Amino acid sequence: MARRVLVTGLNGAVGSAMRPALAERYELSALSRSGVSGLPGERVFRADISDFGAIRPAFEGIDTVVHLAADGGVNSSDGMDAPWEAMLQNNIIGTFNVLEAARQAGARRVVLASSGATIKGYENESPYRELASGNPAIAPGTWEMITHESEPKPITLYGVSKLFAEDLGRYFVNTSEMSVICMRIGGCNAEDRPAPGRGQAIWLSHRDTRQMAIRCIEAPDTVRFDIFFFTSNNELGYRDLDHAREVIGYIPEDGARGQATVR
Asked: What is the mean pLDDT of residues 56-72?
């Protein structure tokens, strides 16, 4: 029997990129405010994630939840500068509701969309400032990678909300049987090509997005909680990919300048 996977925010840039692989591999359901086309009606749920009672039925019988819905992403009107009220309702209350609904329904795992916004403050410092410029000519010869164990440095409320989501994940792992994996997702866009400037450092291709999702969904049961950075293998990349490679086997196939071997 195919694994039953519920995705929130499937219509977004990241959800759209991973959807073909998920639909082929799993019994896919979707939860969003606006609905999703192309899936059987009984697997499409329309509700706001800040409304626990409205979203709860979507989780019945689900094995794994991939939680992408949030405010502050590439499709949000205010981007990462969305105001506190939006962060509170969508990214904090909404994430708690998704985790609690998954717990109540007996889901095995929740895969949470976190973000490089959790450490974006490093880009105000050398050598990450130069790397994020997208200009190889001013990049240093070597640099220290930022890992999941590096000190967080959010500079937006969006980044703060994603750190809160990660800690909510820790709470649910410590108080239930659920596994929670946090994906610090790079720059995945609808065009599937690296944007100028910092996009050269943080780009995540659609092909690598699909691999990211599958690796997290199918990670061994021994992975109860973890945080991974996900980008493609970009020449100017500063976010560590070794941890994801070693723990769940993520090996990006693309890179902003064509390389395809993990740094």
From this structure: 96
In the chain, pLDDT over 90 holds for what percent of residues? 90
Mean pLDDT of 230-245: 98
Q: Is the pTM of this model over 0.85?
A: yes
CATH number at residue 179: 3.40.50.720
41 in a structural domain: yes
3-state secondary structure the chain: CCCEEEEECCCCHHHHHHHHHHHHHCEEEEEECCCCCCCCHHHEEECCCCCHHHHHHHHCCCCEEEECCCCCCCCCCCHHHCCHHHHHHHHHHHHHHHHHHHHHHCCCEEEEEEEHHHHHHHHHCCCHHHHHCCCHHHCCCCCCCECCCCCCCCCCHHHHHHHHHHHHHHHHHHHCCCEEEEEEECECCCCCCCCCCCHHHHECCHHHHHHHHHHHHCCCCCCCEEEEEECCCCCCCCECCHHHHHHHCCCCCCCCCCCCCCC
Q: How many domains are there within the chain?
A: 1
In a domain, 253, yes or no: no
Given this model, what pLDDT does residue 76 score?
A: 64
